[in-house]
Amino acid sequence: MVADLSQLVKAYDVRGIVPDQWDESLAELFGAAFVQVTEADAIVIGHDMRPSSPGLAAAFARGATARGADVTLIGLCSTDQLYYASGALDLPGAMFTASHNPARYNGIKLCRAGAAPVGQDTGLTEIRTLVEQWSEHGAPGSPAGTPGTVTERDTLTDYAAHLLGLVGLSGIRPLKVVVDAGNGMGGHTVPTVFAGLPVDLVPMYFELDGTFPNHEANPLDPKNIVDLQARVLAENADLGLAFDGDADRCFVVDERGEGVSPSAVTALVAARELARNGGEGTVIHNLITSWSVPEVVRENGGTPVRTRVGHSFIKAEMARHGAIFGGEHSAHYYFRDFWNADTGMLAALHVLAALGGQDGPLSGLLDRYDRYAGSGEINSTVADQAGKLAAIRAEYGSREGVGFDELDGLTVTGADWWFNLRPSNTEPLLRLNVEARDEKTMTAVRDEVLALVRA
After folding, report:
1. Which of 107, 144, 147 is nearest to 124 (CA)?
2. Which phi and psi (to 5°) does residue 145 adopt?
3. What pLDDT, in 10s, does the model give residues 44-101?
4. Does the pTM exceed 0.85?
5. In what order do the strands lie in the sheet with 250-253?
6. What domains can be seen in the chain, in order of their start residue?
7. Which of 74, 185, 226, 444 is most buried per CB count within 10 Å?
8. Catalytic residues
9. Torsions phi, psi of 255, nearest 5?
10. Which residue from 233, 234, 378, 232 is spatially nearest to 242, judged by alpha carbons?
11. Contact assessment for residue 244 and residue 180, using Cβ atoms and an 8 Å cutoff
C-alpha cells in the first residue's frame, strides 16, 4: 500500500503522530530518499528527547547507509546544535524532533550541507515522492552496492564554544538567570553553554522528558511561561529564559516577570550585530515584527529587509542579501555567523551580554527597542479565508490614507497603526497581528478587525 504523506510532509519539515501517521519503516525510507535527493555521500543525524526519537533516527540512518552514505550520529541535541554540526562538518543533516508539539508527535527537520534549509521548494517535495513510491515497491539499495558506515560524535562542547566565540561575555557583571527548559533540549545544552559564565543559573524542568509533564514546551503561549514568570520574581532574578522543545527558540522574561516581545529582542540583537560589523549590514525581519525593528536597524547604520513569515523565506533572504542577522516575531533568530541558521541560544547570549554590560535592569535596557503597542497573534477560524481577506480589503480600501500590500496575506497600514491578516497553511485560520503607536489605538483597530473577521 502506498503511504499517504499528505498530512505528514509540511512546507518546511516532516511532522506527524507516531505510530499512527508514520513509524520507523517510513523513517528508513526518508533516510534513503534524503540521500538520493541531496546526492550526499555522508550525512549527520541528531534527535531530541521524545521517546520515539532514538528509534526513528536509527531507522533513518539505516535507510541512508543502505543508499551508500556514511552517517555521523550526534545523539541527543537541540535543533541548532544539529545545524552547528551540519555547518561545521559541511554535511547534510537530519534532526528528529516535533519541536513544541505534544508527546505523540515527532518529525524531521532536514538541511543540506552548511545548514541550508530543505523545504517544499528545495527538495522536500522530491523526497516525499520517492518515499511514496518506495513505500509500495521498496527502496533500492546502494548504487555502488556498498553500504555506508555509522560513527558517533559528540558535538555539544564544540557547539557551545562556537556560540561563545560570537558574543563577548567575559566582562559582564554577575547575573541571576532562571531558565525554563520545559523538559526539552535546553536542559541538555544550557548547562554546557553557561558553564564558566558569571551566571547564577536557576534551572527549571531540565530533566529530559518527551512527555512534557510540567507544561507544553511552547513559550510563545502565555500559559507556558507562568511558572517562569513566578520563579523570576521569587528568586529576584535579573531575567528568565524559556526554550521550546528542541531549544531552537528562546523567549525572554524581564526582572518584573513580564514577557519581552521577540521584536524587542530582534532589535536589540540587530543593533549589537551591526556594531560587531562596523555599523553596516543588512538585517532581515518578517512583516509581523514591530516597526521598532527597521527603525533600530536604520538608526544603527544597517539596511532592513522585510520578508514573508517562515524560516525558509528568512534563510533565503539572508543568503540573497548576505545579511548579518534576521529575526522573526515567533522568537526565531538567524545569524550569518551561524550558517544563516536560527539559534535561540545565541540570541539569549546577546541578551545576557547586553544586560551584563551595563548596570540597569532589563526592562530599562529594552525600553529603547520596544516602542509600540502590539496585539500579539490572534487566530480566528474562517472557512473562506480568501473571501474574508477580499472583504476586509474592500472595507479599508475606501478609507483615506490607508495603504496595502500582499507580500504575505494582507497588510493594511494607517498613519498610526498597521495590521496583518495571514491565512494558515495547514488550518482554516486567519492570523491577525496589530500594532499601533499607543495602546488605545491598537485596541480599537484590533477590535474592529476582529469584528469584521468573525462576522
Report:
1. 107
2. 85, -5
3. 999 999 999 999 999 999 999 999 999 999 999 999 999 999 999 999 999 999 999 9
4. yes
5. 199-204, 175-180, 239-243, 250-253
6. 14-154 (3.40.120.10), 158-253 (3.40.120.10), 262-369 (3.40.120.10), 374-453 (3.30.310.50)
7. 185
8. 99
9. -65, -15
10. 232
11. no
